[in-house]
């Protein structure tokens, strides 16, 4: 048991050293990426979950935007973007689908979507109006309610301050709670006596 504990401790220290070395290497690569002026994004090799989290942390500290892409745990990779070249939603969707981002193709898709929307709008304008009543129902009753009856009612309407308060005279049961409970107990005792 002591040997196994020593081996475990040694393995943990070795893993910790590897993580520190990996972080230093990623910090160097990220700083090189920041200094490269013509590179708006950089794709890193596939990594495991811990390495990806370290790279995301390094990118965040450096003020960059980072995303992970890929389906399998073994093939997931990280892409780092400079803030001024942050990816659009369409670009992110392309990477998630496993495609390379092509701005010309994305512009073509956007243009096609706009054309489809315009055609749909034109079809709606050309189509007949949906079936409905030929006139407003209020016209039928205008002689009864008038044209501005609702506006006048809204102006004169006031909240009833006594809403929910019922006068004692209007209550059906005028007994107090104690009297009602005593009556219920008496009926219960009478039933029990009859059952016995």
From TrEMBL:
SUPFAM superfamilies to which the protein is assigned, alphabetical: R3H domain (SSF82708)
CDD domains: R3H_sperm-antigen
Region (Disordered): 114-139
MF annotations from Gene Ontology: nucleic acid binding
SMART domains to which the protein is assigned, alphabetical: R3H
PROSITE patterns noted in UniProt: R3H
Any Pfam family matching the protein: R3H
Segments forming domain R3H: 20-83
InterPro entries, alphabetized: R3H_dom, R3H_dom_sf, R3H_sperm-antigen, SPAG7
Taxonomic superkingdom: Eukaryota
Name of the protein in question: SPAG7 protein
Organism per entry: Cnemophilus loriae (Loria's bird-of-paradise)
Gene name of the record: Spag7
């Amino acid at each position: 048991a002591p040997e196994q504990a020593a081996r475990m401790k040694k393995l943990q220290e070795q893993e910790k050293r590897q993580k520190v070395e990996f972080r230093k290497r990623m910090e160097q690569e990220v700083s090189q990426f920041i200094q490269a002026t013509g590179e708006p994004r950089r794709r890193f090799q596939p990594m495991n979950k811990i390495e990806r989290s370290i790279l995301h942390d390094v990118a965040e500290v450096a003020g960059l935007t980072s995303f992970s892409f890929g389906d399998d745990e073994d093939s997931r990779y990280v892409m780092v973007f400079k803030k001024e070249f942050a990816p659009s939603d369409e670009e992110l969707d392309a990477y998630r689908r496993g495609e390379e981002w092509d701005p010309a193709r994305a512009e073509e898709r956007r243009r096609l979507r706009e054309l489809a929307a315009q055609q749909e709008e034109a079809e709606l304008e050309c189509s007949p109006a949906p079936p409905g009543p030929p006139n407003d129902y209020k016209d039928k009753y205008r002689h009864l309610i008038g044209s501005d009856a609702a506006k006048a009612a809204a102006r004169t309407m006031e909240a009833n301050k006594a809403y929910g308060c019922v006068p004692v005279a209007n209550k059906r049961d005028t007994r107090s709670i104690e009297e009602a409970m005593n009556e219920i107990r008496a009926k219960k005792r009478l039933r029990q006596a009859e059952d016995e």
